[in-house]
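User: Predict structure, ligand zinc ion.
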Amino acid sequence: MIKNIILDFGHGGIDKNGKYTTAPAKMHTFSNGDVAYEGEINRQIGGMLALYLNAHRLRYNIVMTVNTYDPTDISLDKRVETANKYDANESILISIHSNASSPSGRGRGFEIFTTRGLTKSDQLATEIGVVIREFYKKQNLELRFDFEDNDLDKEANFQILRQSNCPAVLLECLFFDNLDDFKKLRDPEFQKELSWHIYRGVMNYLAKYGD
Ligand SMILES: [Zn+2]
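Assistant: Predicted complex:
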């Protein structure tokens, strides 16, 4: 039975001195002067997801590898260490990121990644993916996975997916270095809706496979 929902928000945030704690590759300055900080966006979307999930805190233990109010760029080793404190058979992990396509900045859309091979992560990716697909269709936003073959996830070798013992997925919500995608990512209303749909996908997974 799933007891723990582990949330991971990629990279670091902005500290009290206004300094971004993460490598410059994880931010983007647009020609109009707007600056996108991936780690901040991940914390904002992930923080809202945590709020929705907290409504179920009597049933599920909501764990965060990174606190939304803490801008520290926690190492991947530490994030994995936190995740692996919990019984893998009783836990799932959702890692929130946004994507980049420098230098062109032309990349757009949503991707979801799982551990390599056929694992329990695939069902989690599918349940989140189908809900996001409906939402993004209405928003005229792209999905970067092929859902015709009934396999929504892309397989990658991210450390958080490779080394976490429980079913784990990594979401690249949109591209923070594309101005159209970034306008969505920074919009609190969009963040709220996106996190709500991720939450719905997680709940669908738990209803089907959580017991
Ligand atoms: Zn990232």
